[in-house]
Design brief:
By secondary structure, the protein is α/β, with parallel strands linked by helices. The chain is 40% helix and 21% strand. The strands form three sheets. A six-stranded mixed beta sheet has the order 7-6-5-8-9-10, with helices on both faces. A two-stranded antiparallel sheet has the order 1-4. Strand 9, helix 5 and strand 10 form a beta-alpha-beta unit.
């Protein structure tokens, strides 16, 4: 669910402007999962544009507090959300921790890095939601460390049905600054893509794991 429509449209426009989101239906990208995709999202580019990263930071800070109440700690999911998560924590005057994909195999064997007390209320910040699996592994690690997860806030979601179901099963409320629907509507309105390309992008979103597979 998006925080609000105005923020969703503005965020989508900014991501397109800096090529954080690339739309290329004619020459699909290949994800790490092996899926073919007509879209690629790299929100880490946001950190290189001060005005845009400040906008994202401020929208996160405002909407997190409005939606979840002020938590005790902000947690970022490594590695993509460490930078923006830390900026949000700084804006709210809160401690920050980050969560590794898995525990370190040396030293203190930490998966959650930073100071976190059992029972503290945590909002998790993520940069991108696809299936939600990696994001929810971070939630599991925080819960194992004794955190009370108030919810998750992400910059962008592809809006896959499987992600919605995964978050529902984990009993985690997810809110995003923007999403796939708002992105496509804006991309058509601003003529980033043609109507034919829009159709391709919508077809992919329905069944991303099987799209563009040669039989």
């Amino acid at each position: 669910m998006i925080f609000n429509k105005d923020t969703a449209e503005k965020t989508a426009e900014l991501l397109l402007q800096i090529n954080a989101i690339k739309l290329n239906p004619g020459n699909p990208f290949t994800w790490a999962s092996g899926w073919k995709s007509p879209i690629y999202c790299d929100n880490r580019l946001i950190l290189s544009f001060p005005a845009i990263r400040n906008y994202v930071r401020d929208e996160f800070a405002k909407n997190i507090e409005k939606q979840f109440g002020k938590p005790d700690v902000i947690a970022g999911v490594a590695t993509g959300a460490i930078g923006i998560g830390m900026l949000v924590a700084e804006s709210l005057g809160l401690p920050f921790v980050y969560v590794r994909p898995e525990a370190k195999k040396h030293g203190r064997l930490n998966q959650v890095e930073g100071f976190l007390q059992k029972g503290q209320n945590v909002v998790v910040v993520e940069d991108l939601i696809s299936t939600g699996n990696s994001s929810l592994l971070a939630v599991e690690a925080l819960r194992a460390a004794g955190a009370n997860i108030k919810g998750m806030a992400a910059i962008f979601t592809y809006g896959f049905d499987v992600a919605d179901q995964n978050f529902k099963n984990a009993n985690i409320d997810l809110f995003t600054l923007s999403n796939y629907t708002n992105l496509l509507n804006l991309a058509v309105a601003k003529k980033y893509i043609t109507e034919e390309e829009e159709q391709t992008l919508r077809e992919w979103n329905v069944s991303p794991s099987t799209w563009n597979i040669e039989v």
